[in-house]
Amino acid sequence: MIRANDNYQKLQASYLFSDIAQRVALFQKNNPDTRIIRLGIGDVTRGLPPAVIKAFHEGVDEMADDATFRGYGPEQGYAFLREKIAAHDYQARGADISADEIFVSDGAKCDTGNFQELFAKDIKIAIPDPVYPVYLDTNVMAGRTGVFENGRYQNIVYMDCLRKNDFLPEMPKEPVDLIYLCFPNNPTGTCATKSELAAWVDYARQNQALILFDAAYEAFIRDDSLPKTIYEIDGAHEVAVEFRSFSKTAGFTGTRCGFTVVPKTCSVFTGEGEKISVHALWNRRQSTKFNGVSYPVQKAAEAVYSREGQAQVKELVSSYLQNADIICRTVEDLGYDYAGGKNSPYIWVDGQGRDSWEFFDLLLNQASVVCTPGGGFGRCGNAYIRISAFNSRKNVELAMKSIKEALK
Predict the structure, then answer these.
(1) Of the candidates 230, 390, 399, which has an alpha carbon nearest to the alpha carbon of residue 324?
(2) Residue pLDDT, tens place only, 88-97
C-alpha cells in the first residue's frame, strides 16, 4: 500500500494565496460587472525593462543557431551572470562574496523552501511571526514542527513581531539551530539596522546556528544607513545564507530567476560535531535535483547589471515606492496605524480591532480591493492586513479612493 507523507496533513488549510484567490473568484462570480483592484499578492505589474527584453531576445536568437545553441547549462548558473552578481551586489558594497559562492535559481521562493532539506529532522527552528508562509510550511512538510495547537506548531520557536518591538523579531530565549530572517520584511515592511543584524550574527556564532536570510526586497531600501545584505556584517560569512530575487527588482515574477549566496566558510555539523561545508551540501543538492535556469533568462538577468538596466530597474522600483507613499498617506489620513512602505513595497495596516479576514472581506466587498489578511502570516498578524504597492499608479489611486469611501 502506497502511503502519503503524513506531515502534509499537518498543514493548515490551503496555501494563503490560494484561499485569497478562492474568495476573490467567488466575489467576482457574484459581482461580474465589478472591477477588482488587486493589492494583495506581491506580483509586479509593469513590463520587463527594455535592456532586459533586448538581452532576452538575443539569448533566444542564439538558441536558434547551431553555432551558438546551448544545451544543458551549469546547475549553479552561468559564470557571466554569477560574476556580475558578485561584483555589483556584494563586492561593490564591501562584502567579500565570490562568483562561485552564488547559485542561480528559478526564484527565492524555491530556494528558501528547498534549503531546509540540508538539515537534520530534529533541529530547533526559530521563525518570525508574522512570516512568509513558505518558511514554515516547508518545515511542516519535512516533519520538524510537531502538531498544530492554539494557532502554532509545538516544536517551532516563534519570534513575535509586534508594534511594541517595532515589528522586529524577538531574539530567542533558548538556543536554536536554524533562524529565518527577512529584511525588508514580508509582510510587515520593516528593516533591520546594521547593529540589529550584528546581534543576530553574534547569536548565531555563539550558538553554532545558521541564519537563512531572505533579502528579496533589498532593492527597495533607499536609506543608505540600512544594510542591503547580511554580508555587510562582520562574521556573517560563517553563519548566514542569503536569498535574492530578480522578481521584484526587475519584474521577473513570470520569467523566474533568483539566486542564493552560500559562502564557503559557512558550516553545519554532524551528530559527532564534525564541520560540514554548507556550500558543498547545497552544490550537491542542486546538481542532483536542479537542471539550471534557461540560458535566455540568465542573459536577460545579466542585462539588469548593465548601465541601461540599472537605470531602468531603479525607475521601476521607484514607481512602486511612489505607490507605497500614496498608500501610506491614505492610511494616515484615515487614522490607521501602520508599518512599512518607506523602504519596502508592503504596508502593514492595523485593523483597529477587526480580525484580518474580516478586514479583508470588508475591503473586497465594499471597496473592491484585494489585500492580504495578516492572519495568513501567523498568529501575530491576526489584527492586520498587508497592502501591496505592486500595481499601476492609476489603479493604486483608484483603490485608495475606494478604500477611503469604504472606511470613512
Answers:
(1) 390
(2) 999 999 999 9
Q: 376 and 221 in contact (C-beta within 8 Å)?
A: no
CA dihedral sign of residues 240, 133, 170, 185: positive
Give the three-state DSSP class for 140.
helix
For the chain, the average pLDDT equals 96
What burial class does residue 191 get, using C-beta atoms within 10 Å of its C-beta: 0-12 exposed, 13-18 middle, 19+ buried? buried
List the beta strands (DSSP E) in 174-303.
Answer: 178-182, 210-214, 240-245, 258-261, 267-269, 275-277
The mean pLDDT value for 77-82 works out to 98
Per-residue 3-state assignment (H helix, E strand, C coil) for 278-341: HHHHHHHHHHHHCCCCCHHHHHHHHHHHCHHHHHHHHHHHHHHHHHHHHHHHHHHHCCCCEEEC
If residue 25 lies in a helix (H) or strand (E), which one and from where to where? helix 16-30
DSSP calls for 99-119? GGGEEEES-HHHHHHHGGGGS
Q: Where are the domains of the chain?
A: 13-42+308-407, 53-305
CATH topology for the 53-305 domain? Aspartate Aminotransferase; domain 2 (3.40.640)
The helix (run of H) or strand (run of E) holding residue 152 is: strand 152-153
C-alpha cell read off for 187? 509582510
Q: What residues are paired with 369 via a beta bridge?
A: 37
Bond before 184 cis per omega within 30 degrees: yes
Instruction: Give me the pLDDT at residue 91, please.
Output: 98
CB atoms within 10 A of CB 225: 8
In the numeric block, the cell 474568495 is attached to: 23
CATH T-level assignment (fold) for domain 13-42+308-407: Aspartate Aminotransferase, domain 1 (3.90.1150)
Please, are residues 320 and 220 in contact by the beta-carbon 8 Å criterion?
Answer: yes
